[in-house]
């Protein structure tokens, strides 16, 4: 009995520790849903501890519950449990206990134990295999396109529909900056010194910097030389018209080998952005099809030395090596120089970046300026997959080092022109908290009134066969793409979205065509500068509320920018009620 009590106590300790480290939403699902199954054997043992038959049944039932709980966590528990799921969690264990009683009462001793064990193992294996196949089948479904989520708002009946191909950028006659990009394969040396076949724009790693001035009209002509699956260019974080967004089968067809496609948009927002192929993104970005888009303000507030950097994708350098975005990283900087480092993360996971040797400021997040940023020191930055941060500092008279925590080569070292010193590799404990950083001010989005639409997106995972292997498939509201519901809005709506992460992994959620204002994190309102983002990292157990204005008509992707997660089901669309696409099929990462 004492051993059972200790096991029960250990379970509660694990629950408390997990809730502190990975969040309440995770605990509410995993431990809350499974608590009756975990606790019931101990309750039964307490009640029937003096009865030999029941004690034997309870012990067998406890073994069953242990296996069943693992199975439910891995395969079955969705974000929004239905009646069948509740039966599985609560009713099925009761049924099993009854069947165990019937077996022991009427058939006990009539069959050899090895046949019972062998049969049980076969049933369990078959059940698991069947679940893997069932989940994989859900991934291959055609999609129930009639599943529309109106967010509690009015379901409109629009007569005049608009084709996405009509929602284009400016005319060619007003273009002020033109660029020619060719996507092609190239074998070259990567940061670790080995050689690999990369897929690059204009043969450059990273792709050419598009550097323009606010107000320029930009034209980029993309030609595909030899990328078999076709390529596109998505302007990540830049709110271009939908026809210029670069998503295959929604805004255009992928550019096949030997073909070209021209994008045009007005660069009316200053900041740090990036571009990348959006066709089979997990593979194509990982092989190098990405680069930086820098839009400089018409008037600079002060003269700065600019450095553009990317954390490399996992295929190029899994340890998080820093790549120069424009081919130049100065080794020496004159003390007193104002420095701005524009950092982007092309990796699939959030990256821990450290700047040692000087106080610094985070001047912008995802291209959005921070209002009155303050000095930071002994603080590391966690940049989401797909996210960007502008870091500024004044060069001191000693060395400064910028590096990724996983990069053993030590990143970049900037030495003073007056003296040479050793740069620190110390990793601080404090993390940068954007929800508290900077000074509050009125935002451009009035969220004091009621929202026109409110959506909830809950993130889970399930195991399935995919591409010949067992993978985690990542769900939104219990569904895999293309069965995830379409979020419907009308132009002018003020929209609130709640992200709830009940899975075991980070999910950097990226909404195309719009900027999101972060309202709360884990139920606590933001207190710093208005936190605008296009790629919000939601950690396991976290809940965020964000808002945006539906002011850019189209059919927009909303997906996890861990591109492997998007490939494995975690994507959906935001559709304006009067917009349609003439392209067939479904877009895939």
TrEMBL record:
Subunit structure: Homotrimer.
CDD domains registered for this protein in UniProt: CuRO_D2_2dMcoN_like
Catalytic activity annotation: nitric oxide + Fe(III)-[cytochrome c] + H2O = Fe(II)-[cytochrome c] + nitrite + 2 H(+)
Keyword Oxidoreductase: yes
Enzyme Commission designation: 1.7.2.1
Domain Plastocyanin-like: 185-299, 471-577
Pfam families: Cu-oxidase_2, Cu-oxidase_3
Family designation: Belongs to the multicopper oxidase family.
UniProt xrefs under InterPro entries: Cu-oxidase-like_N (IPR011707), Cu-oxidase_C (IPR011706), Cu-oxidase_fam (IPR045087), Cu_oxidase_Cu_BS (IPR002355), Cupredoxin (IPR008972), NO2-reductase_Cu (IPR001287)
Catalytic EC class: oxidoreductase
Keywords assigned by UniProt, alphabetized: Copper, Membrane, Metal-binding, Oxidoreductase, Repeat, Transmembrane, Transmembrane helix
Cofactor field: Cu(2+); Cu(+)
Bilayer-crossing regions: 30-48, 60-77, 83-103, 115-134
Designated name of the protein: Copper-containing nitrite reductase
């Amino acid at each position: 009995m004492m051993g059972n009590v200790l096991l029960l106590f250990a379970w509660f300790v694990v629950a408390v520790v997990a809730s502190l480290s990975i969040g309440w939403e995770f605990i509410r699902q995993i431990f809350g849903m499974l608590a009756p199954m975990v606790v019931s054997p101990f309750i039964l043992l307490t009640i029937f501890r003096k009865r030999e038959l029941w004690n034997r049944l309870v012990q067998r039932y406890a073994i069953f519950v242990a296996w069943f709980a693992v199975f439910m966590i891995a395969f079955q528990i969705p974000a929004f449990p239905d009646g069948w799921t509740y039966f599985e969690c609560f009713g099925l264990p009761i049924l099993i206990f009854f069947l165990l009683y019937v077996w022991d009462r009427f058939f006990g001793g009539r069959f050899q134990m090895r046949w019972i064990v062998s049969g049980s193992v076969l049933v369990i294996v078959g059940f698991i295999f069947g679940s893997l196949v069932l989940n994989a089948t859900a991934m291959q479904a055609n999609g129930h396109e009639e599943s529309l989520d109106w967010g509690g708002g009015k379901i409109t009946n629009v007569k005049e529909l608009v084709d996405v191909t009509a929602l284009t950028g400016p005319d060619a006659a007003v273009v002020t900056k033109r660029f020619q990009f060719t996507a092609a394969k190239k074998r070259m040396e990567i940061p670790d010194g080995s050689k690999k076949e990369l897929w690059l724009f204009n043969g450059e790693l990273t792709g050419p910097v598009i550097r323009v001035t606010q107000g320029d009209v930009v034209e980029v002509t993309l030609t595909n030389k030899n990328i078999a699956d076709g390529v596109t260019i998505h302007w990540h974080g830049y709110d271009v018209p939908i026809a210029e967004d670069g998503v295959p089968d929604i805004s255009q067809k992928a550019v096949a080998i030997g073909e070209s496609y021209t994008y045009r948009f007005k660069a009316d927002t200053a900041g740090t952005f990036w571009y990348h192929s959006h066709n089979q993104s997990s593979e194509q970005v990982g092989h190098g099809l990405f680069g930086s888009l820098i839009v400089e303000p018409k008037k600079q507030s002060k003269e700065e030395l600019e450095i553009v950097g990317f954390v490399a994708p996992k295929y190029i350098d899994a340890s998080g090596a820093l790549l120069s975005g424009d081919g130049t990283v100065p080794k020496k900087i004159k003390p007193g120089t104002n420095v701005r480092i524009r950092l982007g993360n092309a990796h699939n996971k959030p990256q821990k970046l450290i700047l040692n040797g000087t106080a610094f400021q985070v001047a912008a997040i995802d291209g959005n300026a921070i209002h009155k940023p303050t000095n930071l020191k002994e603080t590391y930055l966690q940049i989401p997959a797909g996210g960007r941060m502008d870091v500024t500092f004044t060069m001191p008279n000693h060395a400064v080092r910028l590096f990724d925590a996983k990069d053993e080569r030590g990143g970049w070292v900037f030495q003073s022109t007056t003296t040479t010193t050793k740069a620190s590799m110390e990793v601080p404990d404090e993390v940068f908290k954007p929800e508290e950083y900077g000074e509050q001010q009125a935002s451009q989005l009035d969220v004091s009134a009621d929202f026109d639409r409110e959506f909830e997106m809950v993130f889970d995972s399930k195991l399935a066969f995919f591409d010949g292997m067992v993978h985690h498939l990542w769900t939104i509201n219990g569904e895999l793409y293309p069965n995830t519901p379409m979020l419907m809005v009308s132009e002018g709506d003020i929209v609130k979205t709640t992200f709830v992460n009940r899975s075991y992994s980070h999910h950097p959620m990226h909404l195309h065509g719009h900027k999101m204002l972060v309202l709360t994190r884990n139920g606590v309102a933001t207190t710093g500068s208005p936190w605008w983002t296009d790629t919000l990292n939601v950690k396991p157990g976290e809940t965020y509320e964000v808002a945006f204005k539906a002011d850019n008509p189209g059919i927009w992707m909303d997906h996890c920018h861990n591109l492997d997660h998007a490939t494995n089901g975690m994507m959906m669309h935001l559709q304006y009620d009067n917009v349609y696409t003439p392209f067939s099929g479904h877009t895939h990462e």
